[in-house]
Fold this protein.
Amino acid sequence: MKMKAGVRELRRALVGLSTVAMLAAAPAYAQLSSATIKGQITQSGAPAAPATPVVASNTATGYNYRTSTGADGSYVLTGLPPGEYAIKVGGQSTEKVTLSIGQTASLDLSVGAADPANSANMAQVVILGSAQRRNVKTSEVGTSVSRAQIDSLPQVSRNFLAFADLAPGVRFDVEAKTGYGTLQGGAQNQDNVNVFIDGVGQKNYILRGGMSGLDSSRGNPFPQSAVAEYKVVSQNYKAEFDQVSSTAITAITKSGTNQLHGDVFFDRTGANLTAYDPFQKKNKADGVERPRFSQKQYGATLGGPIKEDVMHYFIAYEGKRIDTPRQVVAQRQDLLPNAGIVPSLLAQAGSATAKFKEDLVLGKITTRIGEDHLIELTTRVRRENDLVPEDFKLSVPGNEKDRKNDETRIDLKHEFARGDFLNEARIGYEKFHWNPSALLSTPYVKYVVSPSNETKNVVDVLFTGGSPDAQDRMQKGLSLSESLTWTGLAGHTIKGGVKIKKVDFKLYGTSNAIDIRREMIDNVTGIPQVFEISRALAPTGVSYTDRQYGVYLQDDWKVTKQLELNLGLRWDYETNMLNDSYVTPADRAGLFGKQDPRPGAPSGQTYAQSLAKGGVTIGDYISTGSNRKSFKDAWQPRVGMSYDLFGDSNTVFFAGAGRAYDRTIANVALDELQKNSQPGGEIRLIRSEHKLPYTDQFGLGVRQALGAWNTEFGATVSRSRNQFNWFGGNRDVNGGWGNASPIDPMFSSVPGYGTLILGDFISQAKTSSAYLKGDKPFSSASGWGLAATYTYSEGETTNKEWNNDMFNWTYGRYAYSWNPSTTVERHRLVVAGMSDRLLPYGIMLSSKLTLGSGLPYRITDCAKGFNDCVSRKGDGGPFRTVDVAMAKDVGVGFGKVSVRFDVLNVFNTVNYAAYDAWGGGPTTKNPNYLGGDNVKLGTAGAITGPMRTVKLTARYAF
């Protein structure tokens, strides 16, 4: 039935979009993995004759792409892989043209008249205008990252996404103590980013982070050596982009050429090449030395022809091995007596090492069959193992899990081009497997201590025992897509497409495999006492299938020489996003129709009626197996324009607006199932009327040529809605929040059960930004390049945690309100440059500067009493770092040897993070500035970004 419903909805959407297409004259186009050339051809000052042949010849592969001029001398070449081309008009070639991913290059050509009396004097084709201004007539807000920048700019991790922050409003952060990377666009949820590789979305449905390899991983999502270039689109993307409502990244992989090319590399950093941070220095002074550690990365690529001009191959492999040091140090030892369990507990602290292993492989075969057909087969494999402590600083050895994080993808693409048509068909397979398992099976014990020996005011000391994490999540998908581009209507490039995807979810295990105990150590006797226990949850699981449908139409319409419009519309639909056939267990569902058993409840008042007094209609959350409704209204208009003020591409105004839908991660369905399977445990219920998260975007600006520089000034606004959150659903018998503090939910439910937690699509976020960009592209002629982006941002969220946490505990308690987002800096400047002329002997020097005003954080202030807690804003310190790399190539045999060293954080700047956000309880002795008893308030607990780190690299390329 779900399948039939999905087909019916798809059919209706196709009819609706077709109607819009006819009314708008044409649908829009965009490019996830290719480029377009369009322009006007003149001969002796007049438009070129109709049907004049135009051919783009790829200089690396020999592949030709053909079209012909229209009646007005215009032409369009679509579906061009990024690279270098020679453009031929009537058999005569221009100078070489280089295309970037996603680029729409405006290329006007002038053909001189041939001398009929002298056959040697052939007509000459001249490119009009500046090469650096060929990609300015777009409404998108973003930045292209070239191969030269990927190869040259300093970094340690070899994560190609490290340079995404050159785009306005985009951050790529690496947590210093764990090495985990996060991609974030403004205050929008990190789950709503997407990365498209060779036109295929890498969306992850079972973990956070938006794509596989970005959630809780020290590894890389993709081998950097296989990436040719990529583009970051932070605003105003076109209708071809699906399952993304925040930052979109589209990357193209390398391909084989007519020449055999390859390389091998090895790089290393470690303890002897990394400076101590302040915490490591203190621990060393206290007798806890930082253990030795290392990071090794190595790999190779090979590409070339199987048959010249016809078939090519490319293979890439990268491996990563990391031994990360951990200094396990007990906290608040000043409160611990030398008695009871304290001596033996402290003896478990010391040095530990967290090991990580990753292998990445990409294989690609491309073949051209005649002039009309191209077939490309790509395979990608990622295998990852990570030894992960429950807490990096507090977990003693053994309080860890071995986490497997594996991925396999296969994509087969067929392109057919003839005349004004280009058809692209794809079939794709994906399998993603995430499987953490504990090293020990003993109970997980969190030891805490309190200045007052009260459980309301405790601080963590050390964690022992096993890890409770024993999960097995799998996402397996098969997708089919078809897109058709038509350029036969003068001034229009029309593209439409359909995508169908079947995704199987297998979500098993438990995140609470063992008892989790909190034990408070008496600050006089040293004897611990259990004051909180979370019983183990038996493993359970769910398997279900989701079918996804998407359809879009787009049009790039050149209205006049100066004005271009981008008109697009997209629709998406899912049949079974969150296990819609789930039935709420009878023991849970039956609670709400019975007499509320809590003291003070009037006779005859049910628990459901008590909740209703507090605004909770519990029937909206009880699932019968047939009442969950898929969201059908994911219509997404996306429009944009550009206006070339003088017709010379020097001053271009642009604007864009649109809506973009994404989805909620499937793991919340497993949370609901697992929690409700525990007798007497939590009550987890998801709202039956499902919604999809979405973002409305608006941006405008101007691009201005200043000599060799491309500059851009713009402003953007985004507003995200329908983010899924868990929140406290319980209310007292009068519909209130009982004795809960102002920033806490009313934990618990009815006697015999745990807390009532409801899931709904409720949270919002918004970001307003103004930015200024300047870019002087690197060229071998000038020997230098520089890119700089300054962004001013204001970010807010309705989440009580002030971030994108899955929990928004106090939703419904207060009138709708906005909080500062802890993921958005007010000011941020990123500058990256490179030159092979500043240093002697042809040494390539590159550098990246990052300056940020710092992230705010949320303080829990209970200075007026534990029933009067409030949230307050804390200001984090600024972020400053300068990274430098130097490389030298030396010719050896048929290739060259490269020696390189990267230095991150050259000036060894300490960038503090993880500020103590506990304001403390009431006190009259030495209160902090809020009046609370936590003297550590505002004290940094970690750093963000690396201390000064040197990485050494050797590479041989041929």
Observations:
- DSSP finds seven helices and 50 strands in the chain.
- Confidence is low (pLDDT under 50) at residues 13-30, 115-122.
- The first helix runs from residue 2 to 24.
